[in-house]
Amino acid sequence: MKLSLAEKKDLDSVLELYEIAKKTKYCVWDDEYPTIENINFDFEHDCLYVLKDDDKVIGAISINYENEFDDYPDLWLYTKDPCEIARLVVNPEYQNKGFGEFIVKEISKILSEKGYYCIHLAVAVNNLPAVRLYDKCGFLQDCTTFMFDNYYYFYEQRIDRIK
What we know:
By secondary structure, the protein is an alpha+beta fold. The chain is built from four helices and seven strands; from the N terminus they run βααβββαβαββ. The chain has one domain (3-117): 3-Layer(aba) Sandwich (Aminopeptidase). It is globular and about 40 Å long.
């Protein structure tokens, strides 16, 4: 399997994965986020990546070259050439099989090749599977903040240290 830029034909599948995720126990996404507008924006800016099993989209992740929280350098240990990852989703049929970890490792390789030094992200405190994933991948938890009606951990990691 390979993580690659999404193609136009993948967009409906990514939306379907988001909608499935919204109905799961730990997800804080709602009808207003993420939407087809987020998917289209990411696709149009070459920021949406998908993982496929044969031709079936089983996971997706987006990268944000500009993170609104990068304006707060005291928040982060690593501020050199950061990139944010967001909206990581894996089809429930494929969860707990290492695909989330695979996506994180692959996107870190892609970002390294693009010249990024570190990854920043926010994850809802009550999204226990995501918290476990980022802890397992060696991300550092910097702080907790309240935003978007939930508490979030801010995580970061130098790309060369992702396990």
